[in-house]
Every structure is written in structure tokens, then in C-alpha cells.
Amino acid sequence: MSFQPDRRLSLIFLFAGTLFTSASLMFVLQPLFGKILLPLLGGSPAVWNTCMVFYQSLLFLGYLYAHTLSTRLPQRRQIQVHAALILVSFLALPLALPENTVPPTGSNPTFWLLWTLLLAIGLPFFVVSTTAPLMQKWFAHVGHHTSHDPYYLYAASNTGSLIALLSYPFLLEPSIGLDEQRAYWSIGYGLLCVMIVVCAGMLSKNGQSGDEALENNAAADEPGLYVQLHWLLLAFVPSSLLLGLTNFISTDIASVPLLWIIPLTVYLLSFVIVFSKWNDRLHPFMVMLQPVFLVPFIAYAFINPADLPYWAYLILHVLAFFFAVMVCHGELAKMRPHTRHLTRFYLVMSFAGMLGGMFNTFVAPFIFNGIYEYPVMIVAALLLRPGLKQSWRKRLLLQLIFPAMLVVTGLGLYAGVENLLDYFDVIVIGLMVLTCLTFAFRSRPVAFAALTGAIIFLALGVHGLSSHTLYQERTFFGVLAVRESVLTNEQNQPEIYHELFHGTTKHGAQRLPAALSRIPLTYYSRPGPMGQLFSEYDNSDQNWTIGVVGLGAGALACYAKPGQQWTLYEIDPLVVDIAEQPKYFSYLSQCARNASIDIGDARLSLAKEPDHKFDLLVMDAFSSDAVPTHLLTAEAVKLYFRKLKPDGILAFHITNRHLLLKKVLSIHAEQLHLAALIQEFQPEQDMPLVVATDWIVIANKPETLAPLSVSRLGNWQKMPLYFDMKPWTDDFTNIVRIWK
């Protein structure tokens, strides 16, 4: 009797629904637990990237488990083992941080973060990560008429990931707090486990007939080592490119909230498309369009960045990323093996994803002092275009000679030509012409990638020269750079000064002449809000105890008086190293030799201080352009006022290009019955290095702020009232509602 395949749609809905639910839970858990962890680590973008490494590593282990289980054990034993694993995983619920969890303060917290994630969510995340390959493998044995090619179910999995990713910041986070999110996640996890049990029941019922159907298919060739290495590279490069782009746009384009969602959305969308039935028709167009778009991308993103708003740069980079991952993942989907080797295929993919994350998190920060893994992976993606094998074998040396000569010529000019920047326009025009030339090599991936890589390398070198960077280093918390710039001073003469940058955001500046080097500048200038504050309280602050959260270049320290006690809180040890080196900045060495510096997250450090210690507490903590969220919650404000004396003042720096931070603090002041004033300062045009800046001062009583409210030095105003948002707490924040 011949086998009759099952054609029920309900079977597809069951397995697709299980994959959808699993992926949704995975991508809700990632931002959910990241939000729990961020308060401990200052909100650095590296926290997200390190979490991604953990998720990718556990995903690989889950895929390895699914591969081993489905290839080594009979179906009944598979079901038994997986059921036991699910039962054990319930011991990890409800989701929570281990007790007494405190990150290291003087060293890189990466390994601490990975260990904390493993203890807190390792088991349930592992179970969720096994679902995609295991359910597809089981579906291949249930005897459905599409069981011979279950890869389309992977589109359901990635659709779940995509919807969860987009719904979290725009639907879940603004609506419910963390405690409710954790409770709902546990309920969803229970539902997933029930669905897995039902799928296991279908396998147990139909497994024998499904096996018979698979045997009727043509014998599957064993994928060779070259094929598996090709899978590895096609998955590794997009994974690394994803994290590289996320880091790049967060530090070098704009520190915009939720910006990391965009690259990850594109990444997941590419999987949805390439593992659908559309890929065969779309893939040739992606391959054709990639080099067309690459020319303007390289020209305007690397060679000659125009004066465009950040969103225009963002579109350029995201489109280039989209074509790169669509070509790589499209090739990967074309190379998918017979169902018999399905779990091995996914195992190699997950291993490559893990390697990509590890490269960006553990290797790149130690070998690069900037986000250079990003352009490296742009070039690698071009190398993986169709035709690589033929290009590699045919006239390889001829393809590499011209790019090599170009790099050697560039290095020769750098070493042998004085005032190379005098020829900046000529160099830029030459590189743009060469970029147009790359289009001719689009069918030869080796030549295409090598020439593009040479152009990007030279462009980065030229712009590095033009930025006059004295020092640049990369840490867990981002890329810090000290740059030399020139201003026109009061005598209309050029004058050199130093600037401190975190990503693209200026975190301080100092003039170098001895008579001017003690003058606080930028956001801390004497004409600005902080100068006004210290001036108004000049007669009463002789013996104040002052705390400053966020060191920067150390400019605020030059308001210090001999009788005052200053404590400076800084999370990044490298910022302290830079601020303490007089060859870069001399504020600390000149003005605050006796100030104590506390390294670590400021909120944790302040919690250890005695109550009622400070007369003035200045909150000036920024990660690039963003204030870490956990420093803005109601619990944080209550902590600050426990550490302030009854007549103490809280000064909050809220200058921001993208967020209306005054809204958050206004609601706190209203809810906690505090007096608050705001000044949105605009400097006069003839003030060198005095910039527009926004500050809020808050106190227990209006009388404390009276000297400022009647001051003629600045325009201090009462805080506006807002009624359209709940107060931010450690359990609830809503970034979307404070976008400008």
C-alpha cells in the first residue's frame, strides 16, 4: 500500500505557530532582560552587543542539542529527553537577577555579564533556542505533503522574531512594567511548552509513515567541507556586520534611542524573505542592485560625507546593510541541503552567528581602536557574492595587483608628502572616481572586494588625518577620542584647543594657554547655567560637599574652592585616565588635586554614601548623547534626595538632540512635591566654546532655589507641567513618549 501524504493545514499551523511563539518569546526576552541589566552597567551599547553574544552562543548550543538529539536518538527517546529538559527549565522561573548581583568596577564587565545571563535565563532561553531546528526536523517526519522541504517554516520563526522585536518598544514597554512583562513571559513560555508537547504527539502518531515518505525521496548527498565552510562564511559575515553597524550608528552617526532595532529588523526580514518562495525570483535582483547602490554609499558614507542630517546617513548605511545581508542570506538559502541534513545546516548557521558576535565583542575591541570591524565586514560581504569560486581560481594575482598598488601609493604619499591635507580635494575626487570604477568588477568578487577595501582604507586614513586625533581608544563603554582643533580667539588669532569626544558627542573642551586653561567651557561655561549656579551661591558654598556624576574632561572641577569636598563618579576608567593626563586635559591637575574619584555605576556608588552628605549633586552622566535611563527614574531621584542635605540642590544636565528629558524630570518633581527650575541656555555669538545647554535644578523647597529664580545672570524658569505620561520608574520607562 503506497503512502498517502497528510495535506491538513492544521498541521502546518501547529508547527508554524510553535516556531512563531518560540521566536517571539526569544526576542521579547532579549530586550526585557537587557532592560533589567542596563541599570548595573550605565546603559552602554556594549551591554546590548554582549547580550547578543550570549544569545547567539546559547542559540548555537540549542542547535547543537537539536542536531545531536534528532540524529542520535529514536523519535520516542527524543520526546522523552526533550520533555525532561522542559521540566527542569521551569526551575528558572520566574525570571530574575541572582541576589547580590554587582558588576566589577575596575575591569571589563563582559565575562561577569555573560555569567549573570547564564544563571538568570540560561535554561529557559536554551529550551526556546532548540525549537526552530527541532520542530522543523520533527515536521520532516510527520508525513505532511510539504515535509520534504520544511525550510519555509523558518520564515514563520523569523516573522515571530520580527513582530516581537518591533512590538516591545512600541507596545509592550509603554504599556506594562517589568514585573508584568516577566509574568506574561512565563505564561507564554508555558504555552510554548504545551505546543511542543502537541507537536511531539503528532510526531509519535505519524512518525513511521513520515519516515517512509522521506525514504521515497532521492538520496541526499553529504555536504562536503567546502560547502559547510561556505555556509559558515555566509552566516558569519551578516552576523558580524549586524553588530558592527549597530555600534557604528550608535557612536558615529547618532545616539538615538532604539536605533539598534533598525539593523536587527533588516537582518530578521532578510531571513523571512530568503527562506520564502520569493527568494528564487528576488535573489538575482539583490545581486544586481548591490553594486549599483554601493557606489553612492562608499562615496557619501566614507569618502566625502556631505552635510546631511543623521537620518540621511542612517538610510545610506541601512540600505547598504540590507543589500549585503540579502545577498549573503540569499546565497545561503540557495545552498540549503536535503532535509536529512537540516539540523547540521542550522547548526553551522548558529555557530557562524556566535562567531560573528564573539569577533565583534571579544576580538575587535582589542585589535581596533574604532568601529573598524564594520567596514571590514562590508568588504567581506562583497567577497561572498556569487562567482566567488570562479573568481578565486581565475587570475587571482591580477585581481589583487591594482588594489595593492593603490594602498602602497596611498601609504607612500602619507609618508613622503608634507601637508597632505592641502591636497584633500584632489584625493577625495580621485577616490570617488575609483569608486565608480569598482562597478566594472562586480562579477569578480575578489577584485570587487579588494578594490572597495583599498578605497575605504584610504578614505578612513584621510579623514583620520583631517580630524587631528591625538588619542583614540575603545572600551566596553564606547570609543573615546581626544582631538586638536582651532578657534579664533578674542584677538582674532587662531588658537589650538583640545576636545573630548565619546562617539560623535563632544564631552568637553579646554583652551591651552595658561591664562585660559582653568576656564570651564562648553556645557559648563561661566556664562551658562552651571557658572550662574556657582556664582549665585558664592558666599554660602565655601564648605559645601559636592558630588558630580560623569567626569568628562573634568571642567566642572574648576569651580572647586579650597574648603569644599568634591567626589567625582565615573563608570569608564578610560575617561579617568584621559582627564588625569595634563597633555590632554589639565582641569583636574590644576583645579581638583584633592577631589576623590569613584569608578563604577554612579547609582550603585551613591547608594553606599551616607545619607544627607551632599550640598550639591550634579548629574552629568551621558553615554554618547543619551542619559542612562536608570539615572532618570523616580527611585533614582529619591536616592539623590536621600543623599542630599535638606537644603541641598540637585542639578541635572539634560542637553539632548533627540529626547525631551525635561518631561521626565518635570513629572518627578510634580509627583514628589519638589521645587524645580529649568534654563535652556543660548550663548551670545562672540563666546568661544560656550555652547547651548539645558540644565534643571531641583530642591526640596522653593526657598533653596530663590537666588537663581531672581538672578539676573540667567533666565531660570519654572518647569512646564506634563500630564500625558506615567512617571518613569525602575519597573516602567517609555522612551517613545519623550522623542522630540
Number of helices in the DSSP assignment = 23
First-last Cα distance: 69 Å
Query: Rg from C-alpha positions?
Result: 29 Å
**Average pLDDT reading:** 84
The share of residues in helices is 55-70%
Beta-strand percentage range:
5-15%
The geometry reads as: globular
Q: Which residues form runs of ≥5 with pLDDT under 50?
A: 212-219
Descriptive key words:
740 residues, alpha/beta, Rossmann fold, Growth Hormone, Chain: A, 8-stranded mixed sheet
SSE arrangement:
Elements: H1 9-41, H2 45-72, H3 75-89, H4 110-139, H5 153-175, H6 178-216, H7 225-253, H8 261-274, H9 279-303, H10 310-334, H11 342-367, H12 373-383, H13 388-393, H14 396-416, H15 424-438, H16 445-466, E1 469-475, E2 478-488, E3 494-502, E4 505-511, H17 529-536, E5 545-549, E6 565-570, H18 573-579, H19 587-591, E7 596-599, H20 602-607, E8 614-619, H21 634-643, E9 644-653, H22 661-671, E10 675-681, E11 693-699, H23 706-709, E12 717-718
Parallel strand pairs: 5-6, 5-8, 6-7, 8-9
Antiparallel strand pairs: 1-2, 2-3, 3-4, 9-11, 10-11, 10-12
